Amino acid sequence: MSSIRAFRHRHCLLVGLICTFISLTQAVFGDGLAPSVPHVIPATATTFVGDQVVLQSDFNNAPTARYQWQKISSDATNDIPGATNATLVINNLRLADSGAYRFQVTDPAKSAGVTSSQSATLMVNPAPVPANNVIVQFSAQTGPGPAEEIGNSFTPTWTIDANNSLIAGQPPASYSGNFSLETSGRSVGVLTAGGSSTLAIISGMEGRSTSTNYVTCGNRGRAGSAITYALKGSETGFDLTNITVYGGWGDGNRDQQAYTVYYSTVAAPEIFIGLASVEFNPDDPANTPSATRVSLVPAQGALARNVAAVKFDFARPASKNGYAGYCHITLSGSPSSELSSAGARGENQMLVATKGSQTPDDVDLLGSWIWDAKTYDGQTCQFWRTFDIPANSQVTKARLLITADNEFIYFLDGRELGRGVEWRDLFDYNLISHMSSGRHVLAVKGYNSTGPAGVLLGLRMDLADGRFLEIKSDASWKIVPNEVKGWQEMTKPQTTWPAATIVGEIGSGPRWTQPDNVNTMLVPPPARVFFWQSAWFQITFLVLSGLLLVAVFFLAAQLLLHQKERWLLQRERARIAMDIHDDIGSRITQLVLNGEDVQEELPEDSAVRRRLEEVWDDARRVLSSIDEILWALNPRLDTLRDFADYICDYAHKFLEPSGIQCIFEVAPNMQLTTADLPLRRSLLMAIKETLNNIVKHSGATEVRLKIEQQRQHLIVVVQDNGKGFDPAAAKPGRNGLVNLLRRMRELGGSCQLTSQPGKGCHIAFNIPLTRPKRFYLFKR
Q1: Which domain holds residue 448?
Q2: CATH no. for residue 714?
């Protein structure tokens, strides 16, 4: 019995399905010739009063049919006059334009050739109210298909004029986070690529967008958290008139727009001022692929003037699901006509308050891993950059996060403030006590032990007026060659310093996504301000410096006078030497020659002849003394090299009659340093005395004479292989030691004698080549 009832139930169900199919076929196709059911794109649209909306049908008009757009309101369907194309454009929207719209297709050649699309919902909101001269305009559209339909594509009907954007085709100046999460091939560059085709959204599993023309931004999962664009081409900056951000997702989960917009001016390009906070979460009741558009426009004039850069902080306020999708950003404006002081400082802009925490997350504060263009083991890399804190500005917070692979030391204004050795950790420094108005120099020295290398940091300073300044590791840093001295406190870079290279983003490559630890570090207190740093002391110092400068000029003039006197003295010395040589020397030489002729005429055993021979020997010794005097007086022989040549020649001639062999060791690098007359004269006398003692007392067969220059000292060593003696047992005054010591003390040098019985004698003379000179303010 039960089986019969089951059979009847299945029979009735089958009959019902057949009847339903026949009814649908008749309703849709009539005689089998009605057109197919079209869709309206977008399925829903949300916008504001005064905007424009475009509705499109995807119907393929083959064969030719008649079109009619209809509006459904209060259960009444009315044709829209003149709306007989596949596209419906409604300009200057009003609140009354809210409602449902559908597209009707009629084929007059068919008896049942009327087909209507599903209704598309349009919601028109009141015009946004300006806040701080900024109007935030929200718009949203959804696609016709479900999010779960894999490969479902939806392109909103907005038109993007990307070519007129100030950042069209331009990469960001800096950014933080990973803009390519979930889908390979995504790149931060699509945000400024341009073209309406970039708005296509393709759904994947669970509504996830598989489009590579959308990037992921937010405050979770290391999504792209911040991005900054520099506006180039105008020295006075730009007057911004429109900022539009396009976004969307494969479902309603991540189609939110949540971020804060900042800008900086050409007067202070690193100081960012809040412009507006955006938090738009549109309705998507069908959970279909959706698109969003948010524009910032001025109530009057411009959004901001003299703008140098625009920053988007996607981490504040927080997105409902941690991150969302964005596909394009456009900035419109024109070059500023002049650099106004108010506009340049942003004084005409009120500060904005963003929802959620104002404290940046640890990782969001950081930039990119940077290093030199080449990496090798054992490498040291020095990074440098400056930043300016505006005058009369109070820094309320200053936080530095830094790490390095493998080690770092960082300096602020030339002073070392910290170091670290673990790249898996972040090192947190509170620099509030070191921040004041003016220019500062931040320098980092990184060391790579082996493998990949990089430095990662972020410095944020909050000002009392609500502005902030961020310094991140990016390509704006300079690489300082290792041989440069004092680079940690240089306020201007050298033109030869190359830019740093970005070697990796956070979360990419072999390094971490989140640090193992964030270590709070102690910072040395600021250097004390002593009395000599006060204004009164500096003024007094300047006055005294001026007086000292006058004295220096006076002394310089006197020094020039002394140099001229020295030149005159040298010329006079040369004249005297010439006169002695040409007059006295020649006369004595002639006298000796004449006397020798007379001597030859006397008998050999004559007492007169022996007396004359002694006279001529004395005359020859006088000639030798004259040669020494001429050598000492000649200013052209004042160099150490000339002195060494003369001493060697003298020693050779002096020792040759005694049969003592003389070995010379003269340094080949002997410089042409000037040796003044007292030095040459006293040292010559000392060497003569030493050689004379060797000939008389040593019994030596060999003498070594060594002459060398050691920096600003002249070293002369005389060593023999004679019988030697015990200096302690020597009688006072013996061997002329007293004379040697006295001569060296007069030159400011020393004389060191070393000797042992049977081991010869070693005498070393050490004479400074430069001796203090006395200058007088007035001649005595």
Answers
A1: 369-526
A2: 3.30.565.10
pLDDT in tens, 186-225: 888 889 986 555 566 765 545 567 778 888 898 887 788 8
Predicted TM-score (pTM) of the model is 0.57
Do 657 and 753 share a structural domain? yes
- Tens of pLDDT, residues 548-562: 999 999 998 888 888
- Classified as helix, coil or strand, 526 is coil
Q: Rounded to whole angstroms, how far apart are CA atoms 655 and 660?
A: 6
Determine the residue type at 430.
N
Task: Give how far Cα 183 sits from Cα of 214, 222, 325, 455, 705, Å.
Answer: 9, 14, 12, 28, 85
Question: Tokens 């290093």 — which residue?
Answer: 371
Residue 670 lies in a domain: yes
Give the side-chain half-sphere CA count within 13 A for 385.
Answer: 19
The 3-state DSSP class for residue 283 equals coil
> Measuring CA to CA, how many Å separate 599 from each of 160, 488, 620, 621?
124, 85, 15, 18
What SS3 state is found at 382?
strand
How far apart are the C-alpha atoms of 700 and 758, rounded to whole Å?
10
Picking from 298, 218, 209, 252, the residue whose alpha carbon sits closest to that of residue 46 is 252
**CA atoms of 700 and 725, how far apart (whole Å):** 12
* Alpha-helical regions (H) of 516-603: 535-579, 586-600
pLDDT tier at 494, thresholds 50, 70, 90? very high
Q: State how far the alpha carbon of 1 is from the alpha carbons of 4, 5, 356, in Å.
A: 5, 7, 69
Distance of CA 629 to the CA centre of its chain: 65
Assess whether the previous peptide bond of 128 is cis (omega < 30° from 0).
Answer: no
Q: Per the domain annotation, does 395 fall within a domain?
A: yes
The distance of Cα 441 from the centroid of its chain, to the nearest Å, equals 10
d(C-alpha 110, C-alpha 26), whole Å: 12
State the pLDDT confidence band at 343, using cuts at 50, 70 and 90. very low
Distances (CA, A) of 240 to 297, 303, 327: 9, 5, 21
CA dist list (Å): 406 to 309, 378, 425: 33, 10, 11
Residue 613 within a domain:
yes
